[in-house]
Amino acid sequence: MKNVLITGVSGGMGRAISELLLERKYQVYGLDRKESGADERLHFIPCDITDVKSVEAAFERVKASADSLDGIVHTAGIYDLDSLLEMDEERFRRIFEVNLFGVYRVNKIFVPMLNRGGRIVVTSSELAPLDPLPFTGVYAVTKAALEKYAYSLRMEVNLLDISVSVIRPGAVKTGMLRESTRALDSFSTNTQLYRCNAQRFKRTVDMIETKNVAPADIARLVCKALESRHPRFVYNINRNFLLRLMDILPDALQTAIIKAILRT
Fold first, then answer.
1. Closest alpha carbon to 16 in 214, 254, 165
2. pLDDT in tens, 137-161
3. Alpha carbons 50 and 132: distance in angstroms, whole number
4. What DSSP state is assigned to residue 247?
5. Model-level pTM?
6. In this structure, are residues 257 and 249 in contact, taking their beta carbons and an 8 Å threshold?
7. What is the DSSP secondary structure assignment for residue 84, as one 8-state letter?
8. What share of the chain is helix, strand, coil (3-state, %, to 5)?
9. What's the rounded Cα separation, in Å, for the pair 3 and 110?
10. What distance in Å separates the CA atoms of residue 56 and residue 47, rounded to the nearest whole number?
11. Contacts of 117 (CB under 8 A, 6+ apart)
């Protein structure tokens, strides 16, 4: 029986991945701050990935139950949206702590348990390789940094016969979509610099997020990355055509289009 660790296991993607892996007879260890509807077959361990002592305590609990791991799957992440000039520093740091440093901490502590031939799978975003858009920039920057980290890690752990893959989804039908809506509403209400532009931006984001995929689709991609003989570095799903089209335009034209759309 193969052992897999999942972070953010109580979220929509984490839960879907754990359910599919359990169906495939994996032994699953799930980390999250709070348990939420977890399968009784799941080994749930409360853990805050922003706290190194919490991650170390989780490591000791997994190690006491499993001799080794065959995979580490990262789904823990948060979304935020705001003006880079108005976002307070605590929020700015928080999203990096979860989306980037949390992955770093878990890998640093748990990789010694990972078998040769093991897999690390990191959930990123379709925004990671694209030029950042206004107001979603902080989230995009964390995911871009995460992918640079993941690629560098892939180059290193390849020497240990361990593979790293990135799942790069567009909008997924999880609680993060509700968080996106909440963040948009908060931004539209509270911004002082961009009040005239915010509602147009909200309509644009709502249009982009209309097409979304189910967490089960992400779970199948994760299983592919875990089980493929030669896993790819990047697995894309539900990429938005308009975002990709925007990205291939010259930077000056991108800026002019955004200004024309958002400026009143």
1. 214
2. 899 999 999 999 999 999 999 999 9
3. 25
4. H
5. 0.92
6. yes
7. T
8. 50, 15, 30
9. 12
10. 9
11. 70, 161, 162
